[in-house]
Amino acid sequence: MGYCYCSGNPWVLYFSTLTKPLFILHIAHKFEMLGIGEFGRLFGAIELPNLVLYLYPKIIGLGFVLLCSYFGGAIAMG
Question: How many structural domains does the chain have?
Answer without folding.
Answer: 1
